[in-house]
Amino acid sequence: MNRDASGQRDGTGTGSGGSASGGAGHGEVLVSVDAVYKHFPIKQGIVFKKEIGRVHAVDGVDLEVRRGETLGIVGESGCGKSTLARCITGLHQVTAGRILFEGDDITRLGKAGLKAFRRDVQMIFQDPYGSLNPRRRVGSIIGDPFAVHSIAGGAERKRRVQELMELVGLNPEHYNRFPAEFSGGQRQRIGVARALALKPKLIVCDEPVSALDVSIQAQVINLLKDLQDELGLTYVFIAHDLSVVRYVSDRVAVMYLGKVGEAAEAETLYVRPRHPYTAALLSAASIADPDEAERAERIVLTGDVPSPIDPPSGCRFHPRCPKAADRCIREDPPLVPREGDPPDHVTACHFPVEPGERLAHKHAAIAQVSTQPELPEAEE
């Protein structure tokens, strides 16, 4: 599929294969993230600023998102989840690599192409308070996409906005209220309505329920699932809560320090994690059954998360990994299926976790070695 100078589509296409999604999915590839890097320069000086380093926020990520599915992305704070989401939506320009949306490389689109692309990709933000302008009425906020893209105005815009409010469970008669007159859950519904205004094909949910009470979280999550079934939406769902990710996701990718460590079907990953970091994350998740929680063993990782300014050599996780060996310092493990795993279960680990293996009593005995990895040159 290509776009002409006006940004209009003239065909169809699919993304490239060989990424963290493997062969699983609901249908054709909607988004393909191909060796994407996003580095933020660190500059020093007042008048003549000199670059003294870089923050390696995203460092060579390969992912695929298939039409109609939900891809969950989990990891610690600072692992690059939100930065990757902003790259996918075109809010950040990538340092290197490419992102294909229905076959189009969005990293090469001009202003007209980006405007057309953003009709198909929307975002739900984490903070339902900060993402809404407190000085504007709800009807105006939800109607912004219609105004920006010159789709509807006047009475027609008001009708569409009220239909969206009803769709997400808000009272259409509250069209003229301000955000401060709504609860946290209702404000997030306003954000969902705004994201749905242009009937997008992909919605990136950047921790959409983390700022809400637990009871309200369930309402918003069920709303998102119902809208996906009704409208055929595709989600990239970013969250810290592993139980939420398991409930909403078809596939899950685990990120650590700018890289994907493991990706698989949700149930497969939760039942049989292969990367030591994934196993540690799952061991820290809360368990509802008190008897099962008592039997569970917590994997406590030693040391601090390395700095993304100067990431470790080889495997990024080796300074904290209970299975680390000298090979982990020297070689960066490829993200591929390991022995005994299905093709859609990929893991970046030289020594993946075996079924029944107890990592809680293992401790890494190697020192951290840090080098500056080479950055692939960005295409002109």
TrEMBL record:
Annotated keywords: ATP-binding, Nucleotide-binding, Transport
Gene Ontology MF annotations: ATP binding; ATP hydrolysis activity
One example of a Gene Ontology biological process annotation: peptide transport
Pfam families noted in UniProt: ABC_tran (PF00005), oligo_HPY (PF08352)
Compositionally biased intervals (Gly residues): 10-23
Source superkingdom: Bacteria
Renumbered residue ranges of the record's region Disordered: 1-23
Domain ABC transporter: 42-282
Record SMART domains: AAA
CDD domains: ABC_NikE_OppD_transporters
The family this protein is said to belong to: Belongs to the ABC transporter superfamily.
Protein name, entry field: Putative peptide ABC transporter ATP-binding protein
